[in-house]
Specification:
- The chain has two domains: 186 residues, Cytochrome c-like domain (Cytochrome Bc1 Complex, Chain D, domain 2), CATH 1.10.760; 33 residues.
- It contains ten helices and four strands.
- A two-stranded antiparallel sheet has the order 1-2.
- Strand 3 and strand 4 form a beta hairpin.
- The longest helix is centred in the C-terminal third of the chain and has 30 residues.
């Protein structure tokens, strides 16, 4: 089934370039979203995704609605690793996560300020982000020499190309999966706790029904 976010964003109409990872099309000729490996209970994946964001994405992209302290607490990140993240950005633990490059420099390089990614997984969907990051290809006609099948004429360079060449297709997909899993977490940090609370509420209601049922029987037994 075509993801709704993809239906709105992925009407490319042409085949992927040969050096992009192949993405299936549906009967309407639209690219279908790949299924992102989302698992909010996988703390190891979320930590790997956080590390990948800090090392590969945080120069240009911010997570302005998240703080380093919140990520460290939620994902049980070791203090030594948090120090590395903070040193990269020269930030304090209670700071929000800002892009390391100044906006004027970003405009000079890219022609625009790269978007904040905190809520992107809610706006686009995790599947859309996953497919987008796997759909870059060489295009000499573009200013940065690359294009994207999902978002044609994107201003974003293929910053993960070196990693892709280093680790190969399968490992690269796994790394992208971790990154998207992390971005899905930043879009709604409470989602795991919310689901746990929901289970407890249902259990409480189920247990509460037992005395209510017994009271009902006791109340109506003489009337019947």
């Amino acid at each position: 089934m075509l993801n709704a976010a993809c239906a709105a964003e992925m009407r490319c109409g042409t085949s992927l370039a040969p050096n992009a990872l192949p993405t299936p099309k549906n009967q309407y000729g639209e690219y279908e979203c790949r299924k992102a490996p989302i698992d909010i209970t996988d703390q190891a994946s979320l930590r790997r995704g956080a590390a990948m964001f800090m090392n590969q994405c945080a120069s240009c992209h911010a997570l302005k609605y998240m703080r380093y302290q919140r990520i460290a607490t939620d994902l049980s990140i070791q203090p030594e690793q948090m120090k590395q993240f903070l040193q990269l950005s020269q930030a304090q633990l209670n700071d929000d996560i800002s892009a390391r490059l100044a906006p004027d420099l970003q405009i000079k390089i890219f022609g625009t300020v790269p978007p904040d990614l905190t809520l992107t997984a809610r706006k686009r969907s995790p599947d859309w982000i996953y497919t987008y990051l796997l759909s870059f290809y060489s295009d000499p006609s573009r200013p940065l020499g690359v294009n994207n099948a999902v978002l044609p004429d994107t201003a974003m360079p293929n910053v993960l190309d070196a990693l892709h060449k280093e680790v190969g297709d399968q490992a690269f997909k796994a790394r992208i999966g971790d990154l998207v899993n992390f971005l899905n977490y930043t879009a709604e940090p409470q989602q795991q706790k919310r689901k746990i609370y929901g289970i407890f509420v249902l259990l409480f209601l189920f247990i509460f029904l037992i005395p209510v049922y017994l009271l009902h029987k006791e109340y109506w037994k003489d009337i019947k």
